[in-house]
Amino acid sequence: MASQDFDMIVIGAGPGGYVAAIRGAQLGLKVACVEREHMGGICLNWGCIPTKAMLRSSEIYHYMARAKEYGLTAEKIGYDLDAVVKRSRGVAKQLNSGVTHLLKKNKVTAFMGEASIPAKGKVTVKTDKGTEELSAKSIVIATGARARELPGLEADGDLVWTYKHALTPKRMPKKLLVIGSGAIGIEFASFYNTLGTDTTVVEVMDRILPVEDEEISKFAKKQFEKQGMTIREKTMVKKLDRGQGKVTAHIEQNGKTTTEEFDTVISAVGIVGNTEGLGLEKLGVKVEKTHVVVDRHCRTGVEGIYAIGDIAGAPWLAHKASHEGVMVAELIAGGHPHAVEPSSIAGCTYCHPQIASVGLTEAKAKEQGYQIKVGRFPFIGNGKAIALGESEGMVKTIFDAKTGELLGAHMIGAEVTELIQGYVVGRQLETTEEDLMNTVFPHPTLSEMMHESVLDAYGRAIHF
């Protein structure tokens, strides 16, 4: 079979992959995009989007249970788990179709199949109809990652789940153990706990949400415990004994091992890059701890081969992957794009209350030798938060005392995943505390807390 020639081949159609393909096509490149499972990748089909749809259902359920606080009546409230899952899958399907349409609209040639790179500039795709041989000067690897499974804690889809099983549950857990308190673990813990599941979260580190600012982690722990969750830090699940309809977990804490029974376990202990079967080692592409080693512009050590998104390392975020996709496409097309700066990429966790952050934590800023000014403002001091009935939360800002540079921002509370972008833009524009202080924030809005937190860092807060 004759080889089909392209300017750029993208392997993987997740957020980074399909965006890279579309941007490349916009720049006049002849582009192919290869996907082995689902257009839109894990994020759209099994990650960001369907989880948010499920969390939205639990959020509304949460408000229905509080109807009396708002002067409303809601009797005999309940939920239909199958209908919640069906809605979530429908949202994912709608967006999956949208990605297919966007690729077609931008004249990207799409292939469904398993790709490998037998030689530099060559891609072989095994499809249902046979094998396709493709060639291009530039190849972009965007194959993403999958759930990490630890020995003895492997998922079986019945008693022990990964995120995929947790997104399509056949039953509602009565007593749930979540192993790992990163964004994925905490979001599922929040969803199931809100709908009435007795939920325990185990974290091996000394605090939950370990990548977040310590003050935010502590605040979150208090809120989750108030909601009925059991949080166990500095704790490790050593093994799981599976029985008929139950799992006995051997849990080690402070050097002592105890056992506890659960009917369901969700393992959320990190991710592993999808590097297998691509032929990377033979090509000389360096892989460390299942992730491809790249420079600031996502170039591997082999000319013409790039890696973006989760497979290229932390932070493992869809928006980081998308931006890298744009950057790489522009680079291949002869442009001079700015490198993606990880410290200016926001992280968001969609539990209740929501958590969002960008830049350095207070501890990291001190560690890096900065003299800092720290501002805080609580939700209880904001009129909109009180009116919403969401007065639990805080906004925290960290500045370089010498230059006024915004080093980091950390939030917990209602809708902070939307608010954080204000600080992201501020960091991108190299905003100082003076710029933020002189900005007029609309009233009444939650965003006013962003202003007050900045003012507080300099002893000028008005409303608290």
TrEMBL record:
Keyword terms of this UniProt record:
Cytoplasm, Disulfide bond, FAD, Flavoprotein, NAD, Nucleotide-binding, Oxidoreductase, Redox-active center
Q: Where is the active site?
A: H443
GO terms classed as biological process: 2-oxoglutarate metabolic process
Question: Can you give the residue ranges of the FAD/NAD(P)-binding domain?
Answer: 6-325
One GO cellular component assignment for this chain's record is: cytoplasm
Name all Pyridine nucleotide-disulphide oxidoreductase dimerisation domain ranges: 345-453
Q: Which SUPFAM superfamilies match?
A: FAD/NAD(P)-binding domain, FAD/NAD-linked reductases, dimerisation (C-terminal) domain
Give the matching Pfam families: Pyr_redox_2, Pyr_redox_dim
Q: Which residues bind NAD(+)?
A: G180, S181, G182, A183, I184, G185, I186, E187, E203, G270
Catalyzed reaction equations: N(6)-[(R)-dihydrolipoyl]-L-lysyl-[protein] + NAD(+) = N(6)-[(R)-lipoyl]-L-lysyl-[protein] + NADH + H(+)
The protein's location, in the record's own words, is:
Cytoplasm
What are the GO MF terms of this UniProt record? Answer: dihydrolipoyl dehydrogenase (NADH) activity; flavin adenine dinucleotide binding
Q: Which cysteines are joined by disulfide bonds?
A: C43-C48
Q: For binding FAD, which residues are annotated in this chain's numbering?
A: K52, D310
For this protein, what is the EC number?
1.8.1.4
**Further notes on this entry?**
The active site is a redox-active disulfide bond.
The entry sums up its family as follows:
Belongs to the class-I pyridine nucleotide-disulfide oxidoreductase family.
User: What is the protein named?
Assistant: Dihydrolipoyl dehydrogenase
Originating species: Salipiger marinus
Which taxonomic lineage does the organism of this UniProt entry have?
Bacteria, Pseudomonadati, Pseudomonadota, Alphaproteobacteria, Rhodobacterales
